[in-house]
Amino acid sequence: MDENLERLDERSLRDIKERIAASPFHTWFGMRLLSVGVGDAQMVVDLDERHLNMQGIIHGGVIATVADTVIGLAVRSRLPAELALRTAHLSVNYLTEVEGGRLLVHGRTLHAGRRICHGEADVVGEGGMLTARASATFVVSPGGDP
């Protein structure tokens, strides 16, 4: 992560970490937050048999899910707490198959507007190989995230 990137205040960072740690879905899925800064987030997933498709490789939905999550966190970090964020479009370009190991996912905010936000993520597998690149567009609305 860029060392010059502005960081979230400790309370906001703690809130994001606690929400992910308390999420039954994120826990079951095996996602762990590594870092979050303003407009930037990193997560890791240690892959196991629950992530495999019928061909014995990591299901594309696993990659899409973690990419959507990390882009959403990067974008969320740029918005006031009173605004809610919902995915409107997710696009994933799969570059290589993954058989296991660990995924490192880095999300970045490209645009944080009052109504629409957009970001992208790189999904990197074992050995540092770029596995997928994703982009997502989000709709912003009043109400805040729970």
In short:
The protein is α+β, with helices and mostly antiparallel strands.
How would you explain this protein's 3D organization?
- There is one protein chain.
- 25% of the residues lie in helices and 40% in strands.
- It is an alpha+beta fold.
- The protein has one domain: Hotdog Thioesterase (Thiol Ester Dehydrase, Chain A).
- A 6-stranded antiparallel sheet has the order 1-2-4-5-6-3.
- A hairpin with a 5-residue loop joins strand 5 (116-124) and strand 6 (130-142).
Shape, principal axes of CA atoms: globular
Average residue-wise pLDDT: 88
> Percent of residues in beta strands?
35-45%
- Output the CATH topology: Thiol Ester Dehydrase, Chain A
Q: Can you say what the CATH homologous superfamily is?
A: Hotdog Thioesterase
Neighbour order of strands in the largest sheet: 1-2-4-5-6-3
Output the CATH class name. Answer: Alpha Beta
Give the N-terminus to C-terminus distance in angstroms: 28 Å
In total, the number of strands is 6
Percent helix, as a range, is: 10-25%
**Cα-atom radius of gyration:** 15 Å
Provide the structure class.
Answer: alpha+beta
Sheet bearing the most strands, described?
A: 6 strands, antiparallel
Task: Flag low-confidence runs.
Answer: 1-6
Task: Give me some keywords for this one.
146 residues; alpha+beta; Thiol Ester Dehydrase, Chain A; 6-stranded antiparallel β-sheet; 3 helices; globular
